[in-house]
Amino acid sequence: MPFRPPLVVIRGALSLIDPRQARDTAADTLQQAHTLLLKNCQRLSDVVDTILDVTEIENGTLQLTVIEVNLHALIENILKCHHEAA
User: Fold this and answer.
1) What DSSP string runs through 13-44?
2) Residue 25 and residue 16 in contact, taking contact as beta carbons nearer than 8 Å
3) What average pLDDT values come out for the chain (86 residues) when binned by 10 residues?
4) Residues with Cβ < 8 Å from 32, sequence gap 6 or more?
């Protein structure tokens, strides 16, 4: 499955909810588009946050906090997001 940047997925989902075509689009398709938009807006926000973090690292001002992460759940969520976007 190819990687799709958040903006590509957002643009595709927006085409599904185009007001000129929405009356011909099934409710479940609109719901799927809405879900994709929300998830990929969050992904894009995460990318921006990462860029800001890198800037703080470069400036020597980033404070790190170590936390435990359920790696399996994280990977499952990533795969699910990519599967839904395909």
Assistant:
1) HHHHT-TTTGGGS-HHHHHHHHHHHHHHHHHH
2) yes
3) 71 73 70 82 87 91 90 92 70
4) 13, 16, 84
